[in-house]
């Protein structure tokens, strides 16, 4: 039986590629997509989610969420993802409609209806998750697992200390990590092992419209960013989806993770203590990826998507 997944995201180039992986995997049943401000403004992340749903042919609700972090001004990444979030990709205007629910209520109601069955997977800033926890703390019991793309135990990518999703809403991230569930942290130390280099991209050459209209323009734009030029872009968000599909592709280490909210130079840092007493550990931190098996998983899923794109 396919595993149910609810994806909270901020599309975003790598979000677009992550959604394709989720949709194309026979091992996943996507029960919903919620959007948050992050890579670009909420109007764009939501519009992109709707366009991607129509382009892929996904039959899932999309619910719009928080348009600003808990206490800070929004911080976006248009320099990495383009002003509207999908780089050089131009998809048709969406025909499908948004859910009538706010993302926070959608998350709560969806988890409540199937306790223990759904992987709540967040690949953007954790604002929606924090708001849902504040409104209904029981979601920490109802989620089958909580997987995020975010953080790092060695570095940042937006400043020297912090990964973007954590820096975009440190207070929201702190609420999520402090909830009584165990967070699976798929951070930069792991995602930088998932580089879409020339050999990887060759695997997508026969995917027709999916390759020409989405994958190639996404990766060309993403790969032009200065930090990616040597090895190809890291497809961060797809790693979190892959973990939900097959945790065996990853090595994880138990740790205590706290999010810095006060530091002048370190706000958003995921302070990771592998040596903390085990009774205070709150996270499984991904350290090593089987990259060859990961890209096989991705290529197989993309092949499924390409074969079933709507006209």
Automatic annotation (TrEMBL):
One example GO MF annotation: purine nucleosidase activity
Asked whether the UniProt record includes Mitochondrion among its keywords, one would answer: no
Q: Where is the Inosine/uridine-preferring nucleoside hydrolase domain?
A: 5-295
Q: Which UniProt keywords apply?
A: Glycosidase, Hydrolase
> What protein name is recorded for this chain?
Purine nucleosidase
The record's annotation in InterPro entries points to: Inosine/uridine_hydrolase_dom (IPR001910), IUNH (IPR023186), Ribo_hydro-like (IPR036452)
Cite a single GO BP annotation: purine nucleoside catabolic process
Q: Name one GO cellular component term.
A: cytosol
Name the source organism. Saccharopolyspora spinosa
């Amino acid at each position: 039986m396919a595993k149910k997944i609810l994806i909270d995201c901020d599309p975003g180039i790598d979000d677009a590629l992550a959604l394709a992986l989720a949709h194309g995997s026979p091992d996943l049943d996507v029960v919903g997509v919620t959007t948050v401000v992050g890579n670009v403004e909420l109007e764009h992340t939501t519009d992109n989610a709707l366009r991607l749903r129509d382009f892929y042919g996904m039959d899932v609700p999309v619910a719009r969420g928080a348009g600003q972090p808990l206490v800070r001004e929004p911080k976006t990444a248009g320099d990495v993802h383009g002003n509207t979030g999908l780089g050089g990709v131009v998809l048709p205007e969406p025909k499908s409609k948004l859910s009538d629910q706010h993302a926070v209520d959608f998350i709560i109601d969806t988890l409540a209806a199937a306790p223990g069955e759904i992987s709540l997977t967040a690949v953007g800033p954790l604002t929606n998750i924090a708001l849902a926890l504040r409104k209904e703390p029981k979601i920490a019991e109802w989620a089958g697992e909580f997987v995020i793309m975010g953080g790092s135990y060695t570095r940042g990518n937006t400043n020297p200390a912090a990964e973007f999703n954590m820096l975009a809403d440190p207070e929201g991230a702190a609420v999520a990590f402090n909830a009584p569930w165990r967070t699976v942290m798929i951070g930069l130390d792991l995602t930088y092992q998932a580089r879409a280099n020339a050999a990887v991209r060759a695997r997508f050459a026969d995917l027709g419209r999916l390759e020409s209209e989405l994958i190639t323009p996404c990766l060309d734009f993403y790969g032009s960013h200065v930090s990616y030029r040597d090895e190809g872009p890291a497809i961060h968000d797809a790693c979190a989806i892959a973990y939900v599909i097959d945790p065996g592709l990853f090595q994880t280490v138990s740790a205590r993770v706290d999010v810095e909210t006060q530091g002048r130079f370190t706000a958003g840092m995921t302070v990771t203590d592998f040596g903390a007493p085990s009774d205070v550990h709150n996270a499984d931190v991904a350290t090593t990826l089987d990259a060859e098996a990961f890209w096989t998983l991705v290529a197989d899923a993309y092949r499924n998507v390409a074969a079933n794109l709507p006209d």
